[in-house]
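Researcher: Structure prediction, please.
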Amino acid sequence: MRVAPRRRPGETAEQLVDAFKTLTHRSGIVTRDRAAAYERAEQRRLDDERRGKVMALRAQAGVFKRYERAALDDVDYPQSVLPPDEFNRYLQVRGELASLLDVPGILVLSGDNGPGKTHLASAAVNGFCDAGRRAYYCRAIDFYRQLKSTFGQPGRTAEDLVRRFETYELLVIDEIEVRSESAWENNELRSLLDARYARCVATVLITNKTAAELNGNGEGTTPYLSRALRDRIRHGGSILECRWRSLRAAAGEVTHS
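Model: Predicted structure follows.
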């Protein structure tokens, strides 16, 4: 009587599946227990593949080490330090970010230093990776540095880099106001956001500017965001004001950009 093979130390799930296939082929009989064992081994193989894919996506997502464990479902700390009305605003922003998995759009996280804008956006990137979808976090200044690094480099082109940024299923660009705002930078950013809007993929912009500054404080005031971008945000997203107290200050940390 043949005995179903057991997984040996160091043996992969795929190797165990192959062992089961060999055994059933030789015996010509697949018992109920043996079929169940085969299914469990196949499920372990699929789980291993999924974990490997998630690990690879996270490793390439650009999220800072401080936020590598950030998760949108983890709200215990904000709930413990924020008053109910501020915590409800936090949950609303968190919910909008979570919805990007199903309904792509352009979201702008606006607010002062410390409320956790980068943490929330990084958690969204992690969530996309965990769902097996390509996502990336970067600061605006890093995007331009990467573009400039391709200039004059054989085998590397700015077009290839921009195409990669265009196709992430979620792209987070932090500190959009920390840049020179030259005509070249403005054109590159506008082109990137236009392409992502056309591709119907999710984009999150993070800034310390207020919603009033982004849209224009009033008559005669130049809005920070272009009219075209504001129209795209209104059509498939929103400006989310992170108006609650600094979570870093509540944790006893020094607030900074």
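Model: The first helix runs from residue 13 to 27.
Researcher: Thanks, that helps.
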